[in-house]
Amino acid sequence: MRIFTAAFAVAAGLIVLLGYFFPDQLESLRLLLLDWAIIIAGMAVLVGIFNLIMVQMEKIRTRQKGGTYGGILVIALILTFGFGLILGPAHPYMRLTMDAIIMPVEASLMAILVVTLIYASIRLLRRRVDVMSIVFLSVAVIFLIGVMPTSFAALDSLQQFVVQVAGMFSRGGARGLLIGIALGTLLTGLRVLLGVDRPYGGN
Amino acid sequence: MLSFGLLVFVAVLFVALTLWRRRTPASFRLIDAYERLNRSVGLAVENGTRLHVSLGRGNFFTARGGSALAGLAMLRRLAERTSMSDRPPIVTSGDASLAILSQDTLQSGYRAAGAEEQYRFSTGRLTGLTPFSYAAGAIPTIHDENVSTNIILGDLGTESALLAEASDRENTSLIAASDNLSAQSVFYASAQEPLIGEELFAAGAYVGAGASHEASLNVQDILRWLIILAILIGAGLKIVGAPI
Fold first, then answer.
1. Partners of B173 in the beta sheet?
2. Distance (Å) from the C-alpha of residue A132 to the closest C-alpha of chain B?
3. ipTM, 2 decimals?
4. What is the pLDDT of residues B53-108, one digit of tens each?
5. Which of A126, A143, B163, B180 makes the best surface tag, with the fewest CB within 10 Å?
6. Cβ of A44 and B97 within 8 Å?
7. Main-chain phi, psi angles of B126, to 5 degrees
8. What averages of pLDDT result for each successive group of 10 residues across chain B (244 residues)?
9. pLDDT at A32
10. Which chain A residue has its CA at the smallest distance from B168's CA?
11. Residue B244: its pLDDT value, please?
12. Is B66's CB within 8 Å of A21's CB?
């Protein structure tokens, strides 16, 4: 069974990939396979949510720390899912759930994130005092000053110059990192396509 | 057709180097973060503490799926190595497909180690489907599950700072890498030994996942040199005014 799973996954992956290079011959098959994959991914979300509920239920059952929050999460999830099915996602009450609960909570987390990032920057020099850490922090501060609004017109051109010079180096560095990541992604994908790595059925 | 030819060339090179690496194992430069990871795995088994592996939100329908697959390859090896532990690793993900694959990978790892009965479905978790809900769901795992090492490997954004902060508060080791530039800068400031750029994809080779992972690194190196050569030739031709 596992060999069949691997063979099917490798064949599907190769057809989808080759479909990009030979659209005349394989385009329709590629689109069909992608449609199937999208349906499976949709079902995977439901399975994932079921997993989320089961993990929280186990927390409650075994009286683990945070079990109460788990209970609140499960009740909120079931209620939102139920009302969403009955009323539809465009209903004003459903939109209110998004605007009055989810958005403020995410905004609060964003605010915490700002503080966390500042704190991490301060701790960086305590954790690791080397040239690269100093360069990293200096560039971050230069950029912040560079994009800061100012009421002095004379400072505007200076800010633009600083951002341009610092940006030139950071853009180059970012491209270098992205090329490395692209190569890594290519080889990782190839390992899966050739069936060497099989995260879908074990090897 | 150039891209297809390049792909075939890379595939052939990869297969050839994998066969070669099976006979001649590679020796790699020291990466402090992976040294710490290998130490932490052993310590976690001895101490009876857990590893928390965070695979991020890499969606397999986007290019971000590559980092998730790299994380899964490392997870497979970690699952094998910690299969004898009283406290198995916990894996959190922010994508449903990734969560299912993480469960499958954990189970495969235990099966390969002959300890399939150790597998629990609750150790592979989906904690949220948006960046912040994912982070908010993963933070309690770091605080409450007796975790000694946090391994964050995958596609994350700036929300990774919340995970890094939680790890720091619990005084646990943090090994973190991402394909996202924002997350990389966050980890550079937060992790003891940061992993930069493509070092994320070296995880499998450094935890002993096999010849194919070692060959992948060799192929990446060869391709990197080819790209450097192409950039230099392109720049040279531009300087002399050749039409390119």
1. B149
2. 10
3. 0.90
4. 999 998 888 888 889 999 999 999 999 988 888 888 999 999 999 999 999 999 98
5. A126
6. yes
7. -95, 125
8. 89 93 85 91 89 91 87 91 87 93 91 86 90 92 91 92 92 92 90 87 88 93 94 93 77
9. 94
10. A120
11. 67
12. no
- For the CA atoms of chain A, what is the radius of gyration? 25
Task: Please count the CA atoms within 13 angstroms of the CA of A73 that sit on its side-chain side.
Answer: 21
* CB nearest A41 (choices: B7, B97, B111): B97
Q: What is the SS3 string spanning A92-103?
A: HHHHHHHHHHHH
Domain range list for chain B:
28-209, 210-244
* Radius of gyration, alpha carbons of chain B: 19
Order across the sheet with B147-155: list the strands: B124-126, B90-93, B50-56, B147-155, B173-178
Residues of chain A with pLDDT under 70: 201-203
Please state which CATH number belongs to domain B28-209.
3.40.50
The pLDDT of residue B197 is 86
How far is A123 from A121, CA to CA, in rounded Å?
5
How many other CB atoms are there within 10 angstroms of residue B181's CB atom?
A: 16
Cα maximum dimension of chain A: 72
Q: Are B90 and B53 in contact (CB under 8 A)?
A: yes
User: Which one, of A22, A117, A21, A181, lies nearest residue B180 by Cα?
Assistant: A181
Q: 3-class SS at B31? A: coil
Q: If you measure CA to CA, which chain B residue comes closest to A178? A: B197
**pLDDT score of B10:** 93
Token pair in block for residue A23: 């659209």
Residues in chain B: 244
List C-alpha distances in Å: B92 to A188, B58, B96, B134: 21, 12, 10, 8
A41 Cβ under 8 Å from any chain B Cβ: yes
pTM here is 0.89
* Cross-strand bridge partners of residue B147: B50
- Chains A, B: CB contacts within 8 A come to 186
Q: How far is it, in rounded angstroms, from Cα A32 to Cα B104?
A: 25
- Rounded Cα distance between B44 and B82, Å, is 8
User: How high is the pLDDT of residue A202?
Assistant: 55
Q: Which of A47, A44, A19, A48 is nearest to A33 (CA)?
A: A19
